[in-house]
Structure formats: C-alpha cells, structure tokens
Amino acid sequence: FTKFLRDILRREKPDLIGVAFDPPGGSFRREMFAEYKANRPPTPEDIKLSVPYVKRLLEAMCIPILEVAGFEADDVIGTLAKKGDKAGYEVFMVTPDKDYGQLVGDNRKLYKQKGDDIEIVDKEAIKAKYGIENPELVRDILALWGDSSDNIPGVPGVGEKGACKMVQAWGEVENIIANA
C-alpha cells in the first residue's frame, strides 16, 4: 500500500487525494439484499491488523481518511468522483474493481495498478471492452451478468457476452425487460 501510494504521489502529483474505507457496521445494501457479499470469505486477519497502521500512515502524510457510516468506500469514491468532475477536476479512481466502469466519464477515469506499471481506463477503453457508448450501462451489464464477489446472482444463463449483446441492442435493463 505504502509503495503504491508513494508511486502515485511521485508519478501523478495529484492536487487532491483521499483514501476511502468501508466503515464498521456494513452498508445499506445488506438491508436491501440480505445475501449481499454472503459468499465472500472473511477478511484475512493480516489485512484487519494492518488497517490501523495504514490509517496512521495516511494521517502522518496528511491524506484524508474517508468513511461514511452506512455506505461502502465504493459509494464515497463514486460520489466524490462525480462531485470532483462537476467542479472541473480530472478525477482518477484508484481501484481494480470492474464495478467502477459505470463511473467512467469524460473527466473520470480508472487508475489500475498493473505490476510495476499502471493502466488508465477511460471511456474508449470501456467502449472497447463492452461495446457500449455510455459507461453508465456497465451497471446494467453487471446486473444481467451477476457478480460472484458481491453475491449478485444475475440472470440465469446470461454471461458477460450475452449481457453485453443485450445492453448493446436495448440499453438499460428496464428497456430489455420491456422488449422481452
């Protein structure tokens, strides 16, 4: 974590930076869907033990720690990314999570670590991967396809390719259902 953070600071020289954490107590998603993330193994003990040290490091570096009760770190990052974009910033969301594809926009990109290098995922990369013009439709692809890491079942028999084809043809899930 420290090496990657220092690499980002050195390489990118960001104007603003913050690190989001999931707060204790879970999120509103568990109330909506009791099985949310139910198949996920418990957080490894070494990661649990390292979080306080990571937070101390961030405090020492004067990097804000962002936690909002009832919301996952993903929600905080997504909200701030959209607000930053609206305020005129070029925003980079640092994550390997495919869910973030739905947040990519003209001034919002994903910043992914690839070994010692990085990959920037922009609108063109989302278009190339999924065949869609609007990155927001990644949410519909994932809804159809499902997401085993979050225990989201998706539509039986629909995989990534099928979900992409349906969304390419019909757009949002609601439109797919209306035209079934």
Which oligomeric form is depicted? Answer: single chain
In terms of structural class, how would the helical and strand content be classed? Answer: alpha/beta
What would you call the shape? globular
Which spans of ≥5 residues are poorly predicted at pLDDT below 50?
A: none
Sheet having the most strands? 3 strands, mixed
| Strand adjacency order, main sheet | 3-4-5
Topology as a string of helices (H) and strands (E): HEHHEHEEEHHHH
Mean pLDDT: 90
Distance between the termini: 46 Å
Task: Please compute the radius of gyration using only Cα atoms.
Answer: 18 Å
Helix share of residues? Answer: 40-55%
**DSSP helical segment count:** 8
Provide the β-strand percentage band. 5-15%
Number of strands: 5
